[in-house]
């Protein structure tokens, strides 16, 4: 059965092929999600089937004995499974990360953006903590997972919107309207989230220089939509090629500083249960160290007319190389 409603074609198949030529952001509404759910029990992300739940069964809405992080090393051996958080979506970040960021850098009813929203971890925390949210992903199937995990009743019902779109073109978000950006981009093509089906997917970019060039466009859009004085948090990791370290995170740091951000914090986030590392290197002999950390860069956009020279050691320090 096929049904057209202006955006979706409900025929029991993935939405992905319908969005090849999408230009700019396109909102996925509650009505469109409900239509999709009638005909779909799952979606496939990076060859992994992710189930869509018809009715959420929630045991707890909050993490047990939660405390805000107070150092620059964060480690969460158990990623967190309260509310509708699940670890069955490749490379989705621990909900402890957006919870810490939202509580530290926003107030209730502030507007939080995650423009690479994946399975919706950031938006779930927005709902639980009474923050408005915007979630964007280039993969429409990811947006359906996000909406499915937001599909529960709670004492707070903040306005949360979801869009299919590209983090390099946030055309429906006006300048300086966002209170916090919290997002987790792909680390070039280490994990491919759309199996090369979607044009513009950053997770299929093999060339690191090209990836950094495209991420600079992301940084510029972050700077444009963020309010002055507010924060932008990016979790990014590194990789290896031919047994040598490839510092993706350092280059991401440079382009965000080049864009005009001030570095507020550099948090080392310890990695646990690393699927790709286990699969590739288990039982192998190797003469290098396994990567077991990521960087959570927390940037601040300067206030208007702020004397940024006061932070000269936390802004771009070597313009010549950029």
- Provide the succession of SSEs: EHEEEHEHEHEEHEEEHEHE
Low confidence ranges: 1-14, 16-21
CATH superfamily: Vaccinia Virus protein VP39
Give the name of the CATH architecture.
Answer: 3-Layer(aba) Sandwich
Round the Cα radius of gyration to an integer and report it. Answer: 19 Å
Overall mean pLDDT: 86
Beta-strand content bin = 15-25%
Strand order of the largest sheet: 1-7-6-5-8-9-13-12-4
Question: If you consult CATH, what is the topology?
Answer: Rossmann fold
Number of strands: 13
Query: Helices and strands: which structural class?
Result: alpha/beta
CATH class: Alpha Beta
**Straight-line distance between termini:** 53 Å
Biggest sheet record: 9 strands, mixed
Question: What's the helix count?
Answer: 7
| Overall number of structural domains | 1
| Overall body shape | globular
Q: Share of helix among residues?
A: 10-25%
Short description:
The chain is of the alpha/beta class. The chain contains seven helices and 13 strands. The longest helix has 18 residues.
Description:
Helix 5 (208-225) runs parallel beside helix 6 (248-259). With 322 residues, the chain is an alpha/beta fold. 23% of the residues lie in helices and 21% in strands. The protein contains 7 helices and 13 strands. The termini are far apart. The longest helix has 18 residues, at 208-225. The protein is globular. Residues 1-14 and 16-21 have low confidence and may be disordered. Strands 1-7-6-5-8-9-13-12-4 form a 9-stranded mixed sheet, sandwiched between helices. Helix 5 (208-225) links the parallel strand 8 (178-183) and strand 9. The protein has a single domain (73-321), classed as Rossmann fold (3-Layer(aba) Sandwich), CATH 3.40.50.150. It has helices spanning 30-39, 96-105, 121-128, 140-149, 208-225, 248-259, 275-281; strands at residues 26-28, 42-45, 48-51, 73-75, 111-114, 132-137, 160-164, 178-183, 226-236, 239-241, 244-246, 262-270, 293-300.
């Amino acid at each position: 059965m096929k049904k057209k409603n202006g955006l979706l074609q409900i025929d029991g198949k993935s939405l992905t092929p319908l969005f090849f030529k999408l230009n700019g952001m396109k909102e996925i509404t509650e009505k469109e999600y409900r239509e999709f759910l009638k005909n779909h029990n799952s979606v496939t992300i990076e060859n992994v089937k992710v189930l869509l739940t018809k009715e959420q069964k929630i045991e707890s809405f909050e993490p047990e004995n939660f405390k805000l992080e107070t150092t620059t090393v964060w480690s969460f051996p158990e990623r967190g499974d309260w509310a509708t958080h699940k670890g069955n979506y490749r490379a989705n970040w621990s909900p402890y990360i957006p919870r810490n960021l939202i509580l530290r850098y926003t107030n209730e009813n502030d507007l939080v953006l995650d423009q690479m929203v994946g399975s919706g971890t950031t938006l779930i925390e927005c709902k639980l903590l009474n923050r408005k949210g915007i979630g964007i992903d280039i993969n429409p199937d990811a947006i359906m997972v996000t909406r499915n995990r937001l599909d529960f009743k709670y004492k707070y019902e903040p306005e949360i919107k979801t869009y299919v779109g590209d983090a390099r073109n946030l055309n429906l978000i006006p300048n300086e309207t966002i209170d916090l950006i919290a997002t987790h981009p792909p680390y070039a093509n280490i994990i491919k989230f759309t199996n090369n089906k979607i044009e513009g997917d950053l997770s299929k970019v093999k060339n690191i220089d090209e990836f950094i060039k495209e991420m600079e466009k992301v940084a510029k859009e972050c700077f444009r939509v963020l309010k002055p004085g507010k924060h932008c948090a990016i979790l990014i990791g590194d990789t290896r090629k031919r047994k040598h370290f490839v510092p993706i995170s350092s280059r991401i740091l440079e382009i965000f500083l080049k864009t005009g951000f001030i570095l507020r914090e550099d948090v080392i986030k310890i990695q646990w249960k690393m699927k790709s590392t286990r699969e590739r290197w288990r039982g192998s002999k190797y003469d290098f160290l396994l990567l077991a950390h990521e960087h959570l860069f927390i940037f601040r956009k300067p206030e208007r007319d702020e004397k940024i020279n006061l932070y000269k050691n936390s802004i771009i320090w070597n313009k010549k190389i950029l």
